[in-house]
Structure prediction request, 574 residues.
Amino acid sequence: MSLTSSMQIARSALITSQIGLQVTSQNMANAATPGYTRQIAMLQAIRGRASDPFHIGQGVAVTQVRRQIDEALQRRLWNGNSDEFASAQELNVLSQLETILNEGTEFDMSTQLSSFFNTWTEATTLLDSESNIINQGESLSAFIRNMRTDLVDQRAQLEEQIDSQVLTADALLDEIASINQVIVESEVGEAQAGSLRDRRDQIVTELAQLMDISVVETNAGGYDIYSGSSAIVQGSRNRGLEISRVTENDTLTVRVQIAADSTPLPVQSGSIGGLLNSRDGAIDATLEKLDTLASQLIFEVNKLHSTGINEDWLTSSSATLQIPTSDRTLALNDPNNSTLANLPFGATNGSFTVSVRNSEGIVTSTRQIDIDLDGLTNAGLPGFGDDTSADDIMNELNAIPGLNASFDPSGRLVIDSDPGFSFGFSDDSSGALATLGVNSFFEGTKASDISVRDDLTVMLGRMEEGTGKFIANGTALAMGNLATKASDGLGGLSLTKFWANQSQEIAVKTSAARTDANAARLVRESLDGQRAAVSGVSIDEESINLIEYQRQFQAAAQVVTTAQQMFDTILSLV
Prediction:
């Protein structure tokens, strides 16, 4: 050993102290920088030479400067971000949906339905009952159409958000791929490009807020980004993201896929996942329920109104359904009948009764028209050839003395009585009249086109089933009871109960989404705290490190001074 060795050891301490001071300065400078990961200088004693009998060593060296990070915790934090943003997005959509439904106020669907049916109940006691019923029907129709428009607009907004966020995610993936390339080129040996890695982690965090991903670090230091089992970023190559819209079973499906080969990605979380789940879940489900409600409202009201009459009966009645010539000879239940096959409601096996009376009020003819829709031929084999068609109904009506039935140029069934005669319908167990729109109250088939027919004459009375006795307020009372009457088309629920269940379901989902969002936020905040404990900068700790490196530098400098003095003493003795 020699004084030269001592000076070399002190020199290593001086260099190490300076590097440590740089690391500490960098940490303190970025104490408040979002996403910054604390760096630490890894020190290692240099072993002594083999010629040194005591193996004292040759000082200290910085082996590497690395980021203080828990990779497993970082991945859990990315997952936590995905879950938080997904639940927050779903809560936001459900809250907007609740605002559109507006249940529990005087401007909600339940109130509109109640007002409509109450107007029928009160009809026989009001002088202007017909205009009140028509006005309330138009109000209900407009309310349903407006609600559907609001729901469609909300879905369109979600579509725009999905498109925008997928573009943002693709741009982030491009940046990750670029940084991967720079990191691979910059890192040599054990060196780490800390600032580049921090920037990349920040970008991955932003990406995780948009969609659920998994990250695999390669041996070269790059990040491969996966969605499910599909790789999106591999090294410096981004395979790209895009939106695909596919119509399946008359339903438009939106999915995220890889641009390079159209591989669909199972995006379930992040704000994109939350938007997709909300669009395909709550929004589409509510639109479907609203259309179902409107369709059954149209059908059930028209079933009653089509067999309703007033004291002067009918002299003319036209249907609202337009049937082209090619479909008139096909059975009402034939799948090839394009006009009726696409309706959300339809006629069934049964019959209806037609009564004709003369000008003196004497019933001259009563005819039951059977509607055969059993899907069987006369030989008992499956088929629709012998089932009832629109032409069959027209011919049956024409065969009744005093009636004339035909199709007008637009394809609507028109029924007229001969001069001096009037007619009425009753006991329709088939729903054929309502399906064709004969003597109907509403026209349209769903929420987007429901309306009160223009040439409407409100029918308040009806013929009592079985006796044929005229009841002046029979239809009005039956309409009032329709609000709470079970409907086969609604799974045995009434119109008001069906919508109340849907509104309650949305309220429950919103409450659950709020709970999930709060829970996800707390989990993410907890993970943020854990990461800060591991990777965050502590000013107190860095101050201690600053003092240590200062003392180490001063001590090493003193060693150099002392060794120099000893060396000078030796030289003076020579």
The longest helix spans residues 129-186. The mean pLDDT is 91. The chain has 13 helices and 19 strands.
